[in-house]
Amino acid sequence: MSEETTNNLILDIENLVVRYETEDGIVRALNGIDLQLGYRQTIGLVGETGAGKTTAALAMLRLVPDPPGVVECDKLMIGGRDILNLPAAKMDEVRGKDISMIFQDPMSALNPVFTVGEQIAESLQIHEQLDKKTSMERAKEMLEMVGIPGARANEYPHQFSGGMKQRVVIAIALACNPKLLIADEPTTALDVTIQAQVLELMNRLKEQYDTSMIMITHDLGIVAEVCDTVAVMYAGKIVEQGTLEDVFNHTLHPYTEGLFNSLPNIKNRTAMLKPIRGLMPDPTDLPAGCAFAPRCDYATEECKRRKPQLKQVGPTHKFACLAYEQEGFHIKRGNR
Amino acid sequence: MANNILEVRHLKKYFKTSHGMLHAVDDISFDLQAGKTLGLVGESGCGKSTTGRSILRLIEPTSGQIFFEGKDITALSKSQMRHMRKDMQIIFQDPFSSLDPKKTINQIIAEPIRVNRILTDKHQIENRVLELMETVGLAERLINSYPHELDGGRRQRIGIARALAMQPKLIVCDEPVSALDVSIQAQILNLLKELQEKMQLTYIFITHDLSVVNHFSDYIAVMYLGSIVEKAPAEELFGNPIHPYTRALLSAIPVPDLSHKRQRISLKGEITSPINLPDECRFANRCFECQENCRKGIPQLVEVSPDHYVACFQRGV
C-alpha cells in the first residue's frame, strides 16, 4: 500500500493473531485478521460469543494479558503510529488520548469511590495536563454534553441509573477527543428506549468530534443504525466484510445468512426461525478446514479440508467461502 | 371465557422499603386461554418478573386473586400450593445460576420427579430423565455431565427439561433466551414452540426483547411501572400500537434491514422510581402527549377495539 493511502487510515491492521497459551492447550482467539478503517468512519464488528470481537479490541489497545496471551501481527498502526512496537510507557499516553474504549458494563467500568466528575477529570489531568479546577470545569461541560446536568458532577456512580452511567462512561471516553473510539457492546446492558437514546447520542458526538469508531456488537439492528461498514467474525476470523449494502442486501457468506435467519422478523411474525445448527467450535481445537463447515448447510468435502481466504468480489465487498468455487453456487438469501 | 386456564384479577405486589412502599405490581388483571402464549414486555423494573413469580406464588402477592383452572390459588395453603405447582412451572433467565453446580444433569432433572414422588423406582426415574433429555434435544451421553461443562444453550435445555418433568400445563418463561447468542436463541425458541404444540402448553413469556415477543406470543401485554398500559393480540399490537409508551418502545427497536424507514419517537428521561407513586398516569413524566388531565388520576384499561385494551387518558376512547 502506498504511503498516501496509509495516511488516510485511522486504523491499519494486517494479520493480527492472538492466542492464549494455557495449560489446557492453545486457545486460538484471533486467527489472522486484516482491518482498515478510514477517518470518521464507523465499522461494526459482528459475531457471537467467542468470535474474537473483544479480543481484537483488546489487542488494538495492547491490553491482552501476557502471559498467557501472545499477540502477533504484521502491522498495527493507529493514526499513522506503530502501536505494536511502542514501549509500555508510551502506550499509556495513547490509551485514553488517541484511542478510547467504552465497555459493555457501565456498572463495573466506573470506580465507586470517586465522583463521576473526578473520573472524567482524571483523564484530562493526565493527558492534557489541566489543573484540578479547569479539569473539573471541563468535566461538567462533558456531562452536559451527554445530557446530564453539570451539577451532578459531585455525585457517585451508585446515584445514577444504568443509562446515566453509560453516558458518564461515554463522557470519560470522549473527554480527550480521541481519534478512535472502540465501543464494546455499549448498549447491551441497557433497555431499548435507553439504548435508543445512547445510540443517538453516540451518533451525534461522533460527528461533532470527528471520531472514527469501532462498534462491537452482536446485534445486526444496531449495525444497521450506526455503522458505515461491517465485518462479520466467526471463530477468530473475518468471514465477510463490506458496506452495509454489501453485507445486508448482497449477503454472500453462509454464516452471515445464518445470523439473519436466526433473527425474528418483525414484519412477518409467523415465519419459523431458521437457527444455525450446532455450536461455535472449541477455540483450542479448531476444525482443519473452514471453521464454519461443521455447522454449514452448504459445506462440501473441500470445505472440511482447506481453509478459505478472504476474497475481494466488489470494490468494497470481501468474503471467505469455498462453496463458491462450485459453478453457479449461491446461498438462499441471495440478492435482495 | 370457558377455556381460560388462568385468570388474574387485581394482582398487587408491594414491597416495604426504608423509603416507602415500592409498587412492583400495581393492580393488573388479565386472562389467558389454554394453549396460548401471553407475552409480558417492558423495561427493567416494570414488574414483569414479579408478576410471573407472583402468579406461581413464589413470592406472595399483596392482594388480588389468581384463578388457575377456575380455582383461586391465592387461597390455597402452602402444601396445597406445592401440589398445584406441578401444573405450573417456571424457566429462568440465567441458566448459569439456576442450576446447582454440584449436581449432574441426571440429578437436576430427576429432582422434581423424586421430590414430588411422581416415580419412585430408580430405573423408572432414569428412563424418564432420558426421555425428557431426548424431548429437549440433549444427547444421552451428557447424562452424567455437570452444568459447568455445558454451554448456555444446553443449560437452558436442562432448565426446560426440569420444568417439563412435572408435565405442567402452564410455564412461566422468564427471559429464557436473553442470555443466549442469536443462533442459539433461535434454537431454544423453536424448541419451546414445538413443545407447546406437542404438549398443549400455555406460556407466559416474559421478555424485554420486542422482536422475540412478537414472534412468540399470541397476546402481548405491555407493562410500565407495575401496570399494564396496553394489551392486544400480537399482530394488532405491532400493527396498530396506541399507547404512547408502546409506540415509543416499538420505534426504538433496531431493525436489521436497510430498507426499514421509521419515525423514531425519543423518550425523555428514564423510568421513575416505583416508590410512593403519585395518583397520576405512571407514564406522564416521560410522555410526549401528556395533557393536564393525565395528572389527575390513574388511567384504567379501556377496550378501544375488539380485544385491544389501552390505559391512556388521551388515546383510550
Number of helices of chain B: 9
Order of helix and strand elements from N to C terminus of chain A: HEEEHEEEHEHHHHEHEHEEHHHEE
- Report on the biggest sheet of chain B: 8 strands, mixed
Give the mean pLDDT of chain B. Answer: 91
Round the Cα radius of gyration of chain B to an integer and report it: 21 Å
Summing up helix and strand content along with how strands pair, one would put the structural category of chain A as: alpha/beta
Flag low-confidence runs of chain B.
none
End-to-end Cα distance of chain A, whole Å, is 34 Å
Strand order within the widest beta sheet of chain A: 7-8-9-3-10-11-13-12
Rg of chain A from C-alpha positions? 21 Å
Indicate the overall shape of chain B: globular
- Please mark out the parts of chain A with pLDDT under 50 across 5 or more consecutive residues, or reply none: 1-5
SSE order of chain B, one letter for each helix or strand: EEEHEEHEHHHEHEHEEHHEE
Number of helices of chain A: 12
Strand order of the largest sheet of chain B: 6-7-8-3-9-10-12-11
Q: What percent of residues of chain A are in strands?
A: 15-25%
Distance between the termini of chain B: 25 Å
Overall mean pLDDT score of chain A? Answer: 89
Summarize the structure.
Chain A has helices at 3-7, 53-60, 88-94, 106-109, 116-128, 132-145, 162-174, 192-209, 220-226, 244-249, 254-262, 301-305; strands at 9-22, 25-38, 42-46, 69-72, 75-78, 81-82, 99-102, 180-184, 212-217, 229-234, 237-243, 311-312, 318-319. Chain A is of the alpha/beta class.
